[in-house]
């Protein structure tokens, strides 16, 4: 029951147009956020192990790999790793993922973000946010999110 209340709370935050989350705050410290034990990779692996599709987490990972901010040392290090090791090598090093098929999915998400960025440089971001919210609501049901939270807590 507590999980469902938490899920409702988080879902309502995404729908609240008055809550703003600055891209700089969300994107900062991408090396930490892309590490095997943090907020993007661990939930994705846990969800996939539970048989839950993770298209939106993959897009989040793809977006995090693009994050570049001259005032964020980790973003500069990440972009340097990508330049030196190539995208695949950087993904493997930063995330500790060794599964080539999963790395290929992340690369696909990275390229999807790149394509969307080129197409929507001057696009309507309210429309994009609504689209993301719609995808979120369709892809993660309360039951599947509860299952992921339970399994993550047990780890």
Features of this protein?
155 residues, 0% strand, 9 helices, single chain, mainly alpha
Sum this structure up briefly:
The protein is mainly alpha-helical. It contains nine helices and no strands. α5 crosses α7.
Structure overview:
The protein has 155 residues and is an all-alpha fold. It is 74% helix and 0% strand. It is built from 9 helices and no strands. It has helices at residues 2-15, 23-27, 30-33, 41-49, 55-66, 73-95, 100-119, 125-139, 142-154. Helix 1 crosses helix 9, helix 4 (41-49) crosses helix 9 and helix 6 packs antiparallel against helix 7. The radius of gyration is 16 Å and the shape is globular. It starts with a helix and ends with a helix.
Task: Provide the fold topology.
Elements: H1 2-15, H2 23-27, H3 30-33, H4 41-49, H5 55-66, H6 73-95, H7 100-119, H8 125-139, H9 142-154
> Helical percent range?
over 70%
Helix count, DSSP H or I runs of 4 or more residues: 9
Tell me the structural class: mainly alpha
In terms of per-residue confidence, which ranges show pLDDT below 50 for 5 or more consecutive residues? none
Distance between the termini: 20 Å
In what range is the share of β-strand residues?
Answer: under 5%
Main sheet specs: none
Average pLDDT, rounded to a whole number, is 78
């Amino acid at each position: 029951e507590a999980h469902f209340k938490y899920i409702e709370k988080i879902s309502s935050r995404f729908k609240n147009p008055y809550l703003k989350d600055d891209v700089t705050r969300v994107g900062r410290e991408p090396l930490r956020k892309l590490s095997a034990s943090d907020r993007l990779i661990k939930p994705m692996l846990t969800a996939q192990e539970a048989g839950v599709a993770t298209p939106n987490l993959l897009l989040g990972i793809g977006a995090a790999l693009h994050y570049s901010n001259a005032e964020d040392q980790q973003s500069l290090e990440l972009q340097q790793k990508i330049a030196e090791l190539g995208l695949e090598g950087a993904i493997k090093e930063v995330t500790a993922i060794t599964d080539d098929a999963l790395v290929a999915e992340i690369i696909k998400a990275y390229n999807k973000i790149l394509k969307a960025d080129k197409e929507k440089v001057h696009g309507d971001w309210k429309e994009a946010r609504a689209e993301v919210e719609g995808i979120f609501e369709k892809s993660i049901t309360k039951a599947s999110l509860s299952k992921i939270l339970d399994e993550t807590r047990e780890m």
